């Protein structure tokens, strides 16, 4: 096999790997203009950079106006990851999308404070529900009950 064929195979396998990785980062469209990503476990710098790529592409693709990043299941966060999350919010803003971070646990909050990470310019909410309510308010949407039709 010649070098160009090997290069083409490596490029193809890299592309497939990127597509597979994007599928592992499930950015969901909750409502028209509202995206959600729930992170969990331990997030490292390489993962957070990939998250940024996937999120920004999804924002551009859907023309989302609000992106909710839920981190309630994140168990550990270092300075690099926290900075990546802030960069995601800043980059999304450049695309016309406002970010809301929900689910900051007491442990992660303490870590962020100890690391000197400021979220002053970032909207935070306690739960996904609170973040979604905020998104609806920002988009001037209203959920109206049709009555109690559920048996």
Walk me through the structure.
The chain has 151 residues and is α/β, with parallel strands linked by helices. It has one domain (26-138): STAS domain (Transcription Regulator spoIIAA), CATH 3.30.750. Helix content is 50%, strand content 21%. The protein has helices at 3-24, 45-62, 79-94, 106-114, 128-138, and strands at residues 28-31, 34-42, 66-76, 98-102, 123-125. A 5-stranded mixed sheet has the order 1-2-3-4-5, with helices on both faces. Helix 4 (106-114) links the parallel strand 4 (98-102) and strand 5. Helix 2 (45-62) runs parallel beside helix 3 (79-94). The radius of gyration is 18 Å and the shape is globular. The N and C termini lie far apart (66 Å).
β-strand percent reads: 15-25%
CATH class: Alpha Beta
Give the CATH H-level superfamily.
STAS domain
Radius of gyration: 18 Å
Give the termini separation: 66 Å
Low-pLDDT ranges? 2-22
Q: If classified by CATH, what would the architecture be?
A: 2-Layer Sandwich
Helix content: 40-55%
Q: Which structural class best describes the helix and strand composition?
A: alpha/beta
Number of domains: 1
Q: What would the CATH topology be?
A: Transcription Regulator spoIIAA
Mean pLDDT: 84
- The SSE order reads HEEHEHEHEH
The biggest beta sheet reads: 5 strands, mixed
